[in-house]
Amino acid sequence: MQDPGILYVIAVAIPLASFLILLIGGKRLGIVAAYIACAAILTSFAISTYGLVRYAREGNLFAAPAHHGGEAHGQSTKPSATFVAFRADADHQAGESAEHSPHDSEQGHDGGLVWSGQIRWTAFGEDEIRLGYHVDNLTVVMFFMVTLVASLIHIYSIGYMHEELHDPVHDPLAVERGQPPLERPGRFPRFFTYLSLFCFSMLGLVLSDNIFLVFVFWELVGVCSYLLIGFYYERRSAYRAAIKAFVTNRVGDFGMIVGLAIIWTTLGTFTFEETRVALAEGKLSGVLLTVAGLCIFAGCVGKSAQFPLHVWLPDAMEGPTPVSALIHAATMVAAGVYLVGRFYFLFSPEALLIIAIVGGITLFMAGTIAIVQTDIKRVLAYSTISQLGYMMLGLGVGGWVAGLFHLITHAFFKALLFLCSGSVIHAAGTQEMPEMGGLLRKMPITAITMLVGTLAIAGIPLFSGYYSKDAILAYTLYFAQQNGGLLGPALFLLAIGGAAITSFYMFRLWFMTFTGEPRDHHVYEHAHESPPVMTIPLIVLAVLSLIGGYGLGIGQPPAIELALQNGPAAHGAVFHPPHDVHTLAGTFAFGAVVLGIGLAVLFYGIQLLSPDDVAAQFPRLYQFLWNKWYFDELYAFLFVRPVLRISQWARSFDWNIIDGIVDGTAAWTVRLATMDGRFDFFIIDGIVNILGEVTYWFGERVRRIQTGLIRQYIVFLVVGTVAALALLFYVTSLFAR
Amino acid sequence: MSWVLLIATFLPLVAGAILAIAPLERSACRVAALLVTATTFVLVTILCFAFDPAQGAVPQFTVDMPWLPGVSSVRLALGLDGISLWLMPLTALLCIVAVLSSWVSIEEGARGFYSLILVLETGLLGVFAALDVVLFYIFFEFTLIPLFFIIGIWGGEERRRAAIKFFIYTLAGSVLTLIGLVYTVVAYYQQHGTWTFSIPELVTNTRIPVEHQMLVFLALFAGFAIKVPVFPFHTWLPLAHVEAPTAGSVLLAGVLLKLGTYGFVRFSLPLTPVAAQHAFPWIATLAVAGVVYGALCAMAQRDIKRLVAYSSISHMGFCVLGLFALNEQGIAGGILQMVNHGLATGAMFAIVGMLYDRYHTRMIEDYGGTASVLPKLIVLAMIIIFAGIGLPGLNGFVSEILILLGAFKTHKLSAALAATGIVLGAYYMLTLAQRVFFGERRTPEAEDLRWYEAAALVPVAAVCLWIGLYPNTFLKPMLPAIQQTLRTMHSEVSAEVSQTRSRAGRVLTVGDSVRSIGSVFEGDGSQVARTSTW
Question: Full-prediction pTM beyond 0.90?
Fold first, then answer.
């Protein structure tokens, strides 16, 4: 095939076709719907595997630097433009690097393999909006990850959503506690319809070559998320969560639209490639560039659930668990991180600094909240927010490869963790960890795969999370070393503290669920291992979570890292912190992880310490964390309630004032007309009447002179004629003057 | 093809007149009305396919014949250009929706009802097709009469008040518009020595003195702004919508509001470009206020129809903002927004009517969980809602993003403020969906989508999807016309600017217009001399 990029377009189109078939087929498809959707996504996966292999061959994707360590060190002495500008004493070097950057990017372009194509969507004279696809190394890697995880989750869902095949389905959560469960028709095909639409949108997002098309798919994945969070729409909480997710994302999108408008009005293009060239030519710079970057980042904050727009993601757990795994952990929420990585050249140093700070705050805040949550999915949701914070931090401090590397490994182990939790929920019938315990014996495969995921997310050496998280920590430490002031060390402390917290709450989750004595015997009796259709995806994901950070040979750098840096997507943003920094950061991280795990073992593993005692000792802190830092309450106080109150005011203002003025004008017109009528009746008509009466009266009087005496008449005639002539004379003299 | 346009425009009028006197039963009436509206739609669609997009700037399918005996300059002139083209199929399609959405709900006096709908259709099509200013104004005013009766006879409890308010409010505005149009015709006569009522001739060749422009602009604005309605002239709308029968709401929201924005593009922009530019801060303020205010009011409503009515105010605010951004994206977005809003809101009112037919209430709190009772209807309703809140892949997104891009070029802050409307819009529409369609079920069993309901909604949804996926079909014929308008404006504005500069940089104010406008009507010779030099 001439252009393998077309293959990717087909790979995007297949889930769309599946969506349309399922949409038309509707309910009668039954379980066939799942087969169609699975076949579609597996085909896409096959294509993306072919694409990966082919790209790897043609683009030399996995070529390791000759001497990895030395090379890394060598590069670090000549860091990229983005990084240098951070430094306090950067004036001289920034100028130099600005000189270099077009050269760098050309090299990046020439050195990289890109498959792309475009069509025109609309045109306005010189301005036109073009839509196209763009396959580079980042696309290839993302596409592979998305199709792989999505395929596994599709298969898993056949088992997990099996109940929806029944008619009617009993839903105890849709009614008040204590009432008989709601009976409703099953919605099995609809679930897969939405999943197919999601796969189409997510793959389209990854394949798009311009920010406009990304935005289109961005909104589409948002709608899929909305539909799937609200999948159990009879449940009030589910539907509210869906609206919350959509509207919170819209707040971010508001920024994104402004960002789009800035880019388009200043550069006249939407495509990433043309934007990059235009920026290298300096067509957009200074404050406006920073603002544009931050506006785009606002969208990413919404989608990737970063502080301060993170509040929707925990509520999004109302959706079915496979959805939480696919959309709200592995792929869609990572889209914000992906976009920051894709549009990296747009972000000025100031914007990147903000990204790093947002990431740092997010990872720490979400981690602390996760410590006290008891709902297994909510713990995972906060851990997702926290890990996304790590990615943003990594990107913000200049670790382009590290941030995106963590995106990929996180997708594997977080999908695994969610699917495991789904397996637990499926078996135990509850999401509350205090009601679980001792499930290791009942469901060993789930327990062990989940342990793999936990080790991976905690960052235990030899598991994938270790490699990617360590890389982020190394970049953060290097950033702290290179920049004076307190900010860098503060970010590093947050990241290290976050690592300890992560390992603590994850092991807490694992211990509470799988070890110890069963706390609720009903739940325990009920529990069982899930069917193979669910456990096989778990095993595959566990293997991926283990090996995700490995190289293609012993002593080789991680394959994913290589794939990310060996290609045009990196745009010269790749540098490596010196080896000793890496080692130092790794040591710190390892210490933190051991501390976290140790505490978790003490509290929940061997139960030497009681978490309740600690909670009782710090009640304020506990309440603060339990209530998720009071963000929901704060936003309700600051935004939701005021807006609702203003809307009530607006309504009554509209009704009473504006409409009142209109009606008042009408009423006054009527009143005026009435007065005019009265005037007409009493005054004008009155005068006429008076005239009439006067005439009558006069006539009565005049009648008296009708005496019948001729002489008298003649006298009257003469006098009258003289008087009339005199009057006439007077009047004509007046006019003649 | 000219005769197709002529037939399409007047067929409904003739059919309506026949229907009014034909002794037909209710069921025969509605079938007849459906056939006539469908035929009209087919004819209009043929025109759309026959339209040459490259020549979008000049009117096509022109009809030109005298019709007032003795007055040869007033002509029956029809034609379509890129600006009016898409409003024709919109009208024709929504008339079908109007007929179908009253399929069962109109029981009394069906014959009169359907004949009024048909007569109204001619009025609406005529406004967009008219190339003669007299004809335009006749159609423009004429639309009020059938709608007045539709609301006043078949409406809700307060129908009389609503009908009278709607009629008088909009009439009051359009009288001022008439003055503006008469001024234009007189000014043209003074400059060229001949009488013409041809719209293309008037808008391209009338040079309105810069001192008069603001007053002429305001006169035109008065009538158009009330029709749109621009905040704060909107209060007739919620009342009229709530009281109107479904078909009335569909046509009112779907087409009638567009008469105002159409008037802006057709007359205000090319005739008074300097004033339009000067007025931008004010118009933008009103438009943005309308976007946000309409959305806020919509949020607080308990009546579904009232909520949709306020959302119209919000969406039309976007439209006005785009038109007055005075660049290609803005105007194209604005015109497309007219079509999109017509489709989405028209269909939304039809859906509310369908729910009302089943449950006889419009109050949000009476509903709940209708999705489990009426799954198919709610799927269509959700598509329409997503179209309304600007979801990519559906039509609303395209026009909103074009408007925002265009407005951003002209004035960054107003675009940014208007963009908050999309957040609020998502909130109130989805909350509406949550309360009515989802959640706990409160409504009894009812029959799902009936054939005539499907026939009304599915085509609309399909067009929404088409515009959303490939808007170029719709934008292509518009662009030459928009470019033409902008060129006319630009040449005039640059002429005015040099003129104004030579007059020691005087700023155009309403006062200037007031002081000097009288001279045109008095036929002051010096004025003729002055204006004809331009």
Answer: no
